[in-house]
């Protein structure tokens, strides 16, 4: 309990003329008055009733001071108080010391003695207030009556080595009991520690011992619990300990202890175990997305020296390791891009929600992503391009336009980390070409949005050819409108409706020229278009690309009529069965001129896939030399128009190899000196 320096004053009527006009006092007046005052002080000290009126006692002090006996009065009062305080020491020196209960009883007695002393000093000061405010105030070297009381208690009670030792040890014992979960009398501790503070011995007698014990306790506790508990449990324990110690400061410790006390707890429970905590638990916290514990980890590490830089390094290493596994595990290629997007979302959330949007952590994450995503040259670029294709292709019903836009934005963040952006361009161009040429783009707006993002990220030079592809498609539409009008004026109209896309060679992916044997009517129609086009655009050269062609065929089965949406190669094969019932693979190759590998894939799609419009003999999933094929008249399907997908080559398309050679020639890439099949992007 802290007492103010002045608490009460007894009201007394006093006039200056009363002192001046008073007749001369008898010689024994001073002594009689002092005896009366001493008797009153003794009554206060012994907690008995005072015989005299307090106003009368106050007036007596004022009268004594007026007659120049203030020095004597001050000395006599001090002596009486000192005699009383000295008599109190014996009850503490002789107090038994058998168990902790004795210690608690000792503390309670000490507290009663202190409380009584403070109460008595306040009462005495109220009687001698005139002395305190005149004589004492005018003599700067003299302590006030309150300060005299503190000085006497400090000198004769608390400064006694045995008493002080037992008092401090008793307080420390109570704090240790509380730290171990027991309930203690906090008001008792608050009063005793307030006593030490008021007596100005708190720091030397208590605080140093207290901090030494605290350091010892938490050093042992940290070592023990790091072995026994998992990291989430340990972090919550540390937070609870810090909260408890802060609560002690509010409840009974002196405020001046706070900084050193909290620093001690943080050092022993956190700073000494930072690396161990992160090695043992950071990966688990991040793997399991333990947002609460990650937030707590960041908050705790931000309190200790070197905490955040250490956490930052482990965070960076985790991202590199986890991301490297996504990128460098071929078995996971199918899900690589989605896994990367999910991982980036997860790490973004951690940085935003748990790490207080700390710029250092956000930058470290970007650096880590850029490092691991380029550990495996080319493949991430290829798969990102294919992922974009899957999202922009017609038939993708996974997302609304708004959701698709968000997905593309996220893709661009991943794309930003890739060094080999030309490799991405090669695959993106090939897939874009396919979407445009077969009319399988989900949304022109989405396509142009993606193009705009690439242009913003990589510059106009990067997207100029891609933009050229869109211009070609728009111009081709205008040309076909004119061509249809042109055909209406022909004397011999064709049964085939021809649509031609005019592709500027420099804009589009390079396609391997392939000569195939087209039906006469198709060849004738090609010549008509060529005549029409070159008539409008003299000096240009047309080169037909059969690998990009597709058609819709009308077919009749037992079940009824169907329309088959097929590639030009599939068209050439199926048209043969208008002329005969069964053909060998060799006969089909000779008739169509389709290259062997391409022909096998074409026949496989027609006879071995989901829509088997041809029968293969012998049966099997693969097409071999000597296999024979006939029209499947029993073919059934619930749809009227059926798309028969062409089987794609399993190996990476040839245009990538050409693109890589081009990049090497232009010093953008180089072959690995030890492993020829590996390439490095030159920054």
Automatic annotation (TrEMBL):
Biological-process GO terms, alphabetical: protein ubiquitination; ubiquitin-dependent protein catabolic process
Top-rank lineage group of the source organism: Eukaryota
Gene3D superfamilies: Cullin Repeats, Cullin, Chain C, Domain 2, Winged helix-like DNA-binding domain superfamily/Winged helix DNA-binding domain
A matching Pfam family: Cullin
SUPFAM superfamilies with a match to the protein in the record: Cullin homology domain (SSF75632), Cullin repeat-like (SSF74788), Winged helix' DNA-binding domain (SSF46785)
An example molecular function term from Gene Ontology annotations: ubiquitin protein ligase binding
Protein name, UniProt field: Cullin family profile domain-containing protein
Organism: Astatotilapia calliptera
Gene of this entry: CUL4A
């Amino acid at each position: 309990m802290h007492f103010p320096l002045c608490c009460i004053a007894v009201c007394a009527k006093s006039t200056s003329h009363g002192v001046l006009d008073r007749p001369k006092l008898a010689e024994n007046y001073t002594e009689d008055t002092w005896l009366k005052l001493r008797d009153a002080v003794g009554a206060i000290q012994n907690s008995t009733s005072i015989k005299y009126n307090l106003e009368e006692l106050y007036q007596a002090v004022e009268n004594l001071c007026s007659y120049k006996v203030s020095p004597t009065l001050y000395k006599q009062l001090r002596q009486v108080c000192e005699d009383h305080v000295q008599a109190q020491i014996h009850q503490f020196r002789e107090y038994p010391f058998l168990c902790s209960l004795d210690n608690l009883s000792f503390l309670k007695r000490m507290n009663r003695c202190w409380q009584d002393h403070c109460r008595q000093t306040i009462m005495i000061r109220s009687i001698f207030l005139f002395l305190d405010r005149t004589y004492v105030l005018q003599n700067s070297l003299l302590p006030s009556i309150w300060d005299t009381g503190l000085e006497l208690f400090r000198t004769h009670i608390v400064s006694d080595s045995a008493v002080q030792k037992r008092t401090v040890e008793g307080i420390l014992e109570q704090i240790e009991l509380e730290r171990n979960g027991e309930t203690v009398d906090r008001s008792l501790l608050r009063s005793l520690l307030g006593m030490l503070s008021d007596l100005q011995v708190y720091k030397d007698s208590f605080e140093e011992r207290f901090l030494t014990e605290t350091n010892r306790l938490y050093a042992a506790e940290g070592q023990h619990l790091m072995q026994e508990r998992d990291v989430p449990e340990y972090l919550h324990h540390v937070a609870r300990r810090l909260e408890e110690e802060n609560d002690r400061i509010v409840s009974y410790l002196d405020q001046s202890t706070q900084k050193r006390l909290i620093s001690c707890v943080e050092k022993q429970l956190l700073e000494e175990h930072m690396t161990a905590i992160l090695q043992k638990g950071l990966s688990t916290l991040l793997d399991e997305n333990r947002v609460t514990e990650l937030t707590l980890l960041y908050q705790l590490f931000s309190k200790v020296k070197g905490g955040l830089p250490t956490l930052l390094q482990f965070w960076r290493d985790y991202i590199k390791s986890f991301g490297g596994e996504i990128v460098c595990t071929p078995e996971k290629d199918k899900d690589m891009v989605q896994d990367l997007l999910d991982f980036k979302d997860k790490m973004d959330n951690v940085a935003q929600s748990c790490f207080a949007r700390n710029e250092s952590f956000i930058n470290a994450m970007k650096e880590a992503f850029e490092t691991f995503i380029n550990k495996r040259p080319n493949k991430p670029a290829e798969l990102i391009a294919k992922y974009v294709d899957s999202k922009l292709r017609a038939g993708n019903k996974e997302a609304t336009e708004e959701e698709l836009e968000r997905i593309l934005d996220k893709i661009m963040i991943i794309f930003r980390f890739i060094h080999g952006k030309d490799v991405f361009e090669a695959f993106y161009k090939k897939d874009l070409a396919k979407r445009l040429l077969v009319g399988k783009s989900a949304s022109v707006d989405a396509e142009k949005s993606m193009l705009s993002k690439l242009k913003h990220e990589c510059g106009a030079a990067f997207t100029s050819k891609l933009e050229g592809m869109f211009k070609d498609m728009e111009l081709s539409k205008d040309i076909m409108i004119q061509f249809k009008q042109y055909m209406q004026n022909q004397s011999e109209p064709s049964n085939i409706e021809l649509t031609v896309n005019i592709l500027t060679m420099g804009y589009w992916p390079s396609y391997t020229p392939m000569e195939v044997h087209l039906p006469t009517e198709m060849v004738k129609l090609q010549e008509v278009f060529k005549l029409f086009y070159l008539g409008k655009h003299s000096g240009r050269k047309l080169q037909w690309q059969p690998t990009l062609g597709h058609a819709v065929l009308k077919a009749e089965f037992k079940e009824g009529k169907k329309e088959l949406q097929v590639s030009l190669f599939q068209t050439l094969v199926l048209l043969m069965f208008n002329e005969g019932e069964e053909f060998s693979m060799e006969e089909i190759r000779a008739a169509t001129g389709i290259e062997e590998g391409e022909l096998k894939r074409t026949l496989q799609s027609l006879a071995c896939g989901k829509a088997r419009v041809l029968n293969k003999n012998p049966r099997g999933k693969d097409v071999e030399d000597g296999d024979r094929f006939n029209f499947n008249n029993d073919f059934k399907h619930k749809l009227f128009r059926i798309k028969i997908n062409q089987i794609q080559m399993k190996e990476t398309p040839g245009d990538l190899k050409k693109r890589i050679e081009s990049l090497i020639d232009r010093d953008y890439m180089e072959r690995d000196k030890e492993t020829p099949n590996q390439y490095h992007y030159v920054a």
